[in-house]
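Quick one - first record:
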Amino acid sequence: MSALVNSRGRASFSGIFKKRVLFYSCVAYGGEASNRENLSMLGIIGGSGLYKLDNLEIIGAHDIDTPFGKPSAPVTEATLNGNRALFLPRHGLNHEFLPSEVNFRANIWALKKLGARTVLSVSASGSLQEEIKPGDMVLCDQYFDHTRGKRAYSFFGDGLTGHISTAQPACPALTGDVLRAAKALGITLHTGKAYACVEGPRLGTKAESLFLRGAAGCDIVGMTNVPEAFLAREAQMGYVTLAIATDYDCWRENPDEHVSMEAVFAVYYENIDKVKKLVAKLLEGQISETPDFIRTALSGSIITPDVRLTPAQREWLSVLRA
């Protein structure tokens, strides 16, 4: 393995992607492990446009290979007040991946390999409820899968059989941490909401929006948090969605209020500073340890005996079990 140290210092995430002023490490999944002693290190998966977080000390960027291919981008490692965090832009450095093209398994596996034990997902979303207004921020505790089978949904398969429980998919400990940080900043969050994940890349029809809002009982809609949330559980990692509502999707009668990408990005960028302040406040304190029911989620869930697994399967599975 090789590493090149050029410099380190306080910077923004956008700066490290544009300047060669960082430690850059190449890690193969069979080689150097980066298992941290911090059992509550936070991984941050950015949604649309979250490529900059201020006031973090940049440690390095990890260009890591995984058994499932390359992650969306190198994983950036940073610290604030002694708390380490890992950041990964979900859609790539230049937003080059459609939702169904994101390598969700590689992203989650890479974060776990590098030491993350819980994940904060920051995403743009459409509101399906009147009380969630464009610009509001939402914490989700449930997910509804309305995708169409184009994504790799599980680490299981190819001779490794397992069935994970996702009845309680969000991490209550990380949810509490985010709520405390928001309260300290005077930021109001909608909580206990359900996220509907659609396939994309097209925006939905009114019939679909009304179904998700009505029969499915969902509160917001997006294109990325499934299978991400469920893969995090298979990796025994906490997971919480922090969503910015950018629009009312298309369930309202007024066509002028129907979602457009122009409106999505306009509202998202108007509110991204709130998200960055919230994440910075979150990292000022100690991230709570992930509960046992998440950290031991694989216990009893895997049916295939280890003796029937290939050496490669045992190797990558050991990372999820760590």
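second record:
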Amino acid sequence: MGTGKRTMAKNAEVVVSPCPFCLERAPETGFVCSECRLTYQEHALYTDKALAQYTVQAPRYDKLAALFSAVALYPVQRYRKAAIRALNIQAGDTVLDIGCGTGLSFPLIEERIGPEGRLIALDYTASMLEQAANKVEAHGWQNITFIRGDAANVAALVARPVNATVAAFSLSLVPGWQQAIASAAGLLQAGGRFAVLDWQTMKARGPVRVLSPVLEWLTKRYGLADPSVNFSDERPWSEVMGTYLTDMSYRDMHLGTTFLCTGVKG
């Protein structure tokens, strides 16, 4: 494995993915990246669509997320708190945030780990990390390391073991989600916890179905997900996580549109 190039973003360190295929998007159709194990087609799906759209959205992402939450009557912050609480984080712990985006989970993590802890924040989109770095500067946090790279390649990017890992609304966008789970689980210390908070489906259910046309437009325009897809069918989260973790727990949320899956490293 290669070693990442380290740069600085404000007061936070950034590690750029060492994967040349990720960075250069080599056009060989039969090529499989030696770092993250994705094919060219999988990378193209991820980088061309998600990277481009999140780059554009980054400066207003927090407002868009708040708008979606309000329109869909979706208590996203309550679910984030549940995911962080499930990690049983202690002061001084090292926590990995996969697909950190603009850092919406940072305050919840920081209040638990304190200044003596460490937060490692991974995202594929540089502009999202820039927005997250703004939060870091505004709060004066000095214990966050940013990593730019593919979640499927996280084991090659994080040099130290971690006490806990969270992936909130991110792995449903990662083509190499199974490799991401395996790699992240491998970084956990014994007794460390892994929590995945994500979509079962983005199709409106229950009373909010009357808003389906609006929600589907918002989802397709800003969420990158097809509201008709049931991710629990496409991606057996609990089964895959259970390969690497013990004490598995799976909980449906918000009329079955969302789930929280957790496990412990044996």
